[in-house]
Amino acid sequence: MINIPDIQEKIKADFDAQAEEVFKLINEFTAGGRHLNDPRIIRCIVFLADRDIKKLPILIDSAKTDTRDIIMWAEYIPSGPGDQTTRVRDFNKTFDQSEKDVRE
Q1: Is 87 helix (H, G, I), strand (E, B) or coil?
Q2: Is residue 82 in some structural domain?
Q3: What is the average pLDDT across 31-58?
Q4: In the chain, how long is the greatest CA-to-CA distance?
């Protein structure tokens, strides 16, 4: 079970009646290895799902392949030519704090 209050609250708020299914999917995902049981990765997945439970399996599979992809998609935006990006979120912090004082 996810025992991190901000993640629990975000899942309940975003997924409402489907929250229990989301908890189940996330718990199965985090059981796959210690590197997957990282609050930052879980926050990125929940953020990217954007209240759509159908996106979760795709995001979870992507995270299993390479967690860096999930982090890049959730925390960075394009900011110039080529592959230039700017970090706009830091999901090492809680959802409420993730957009405050963001550093590269």
Answers
A1: strand
A2: no
A3: 94
A4: 42
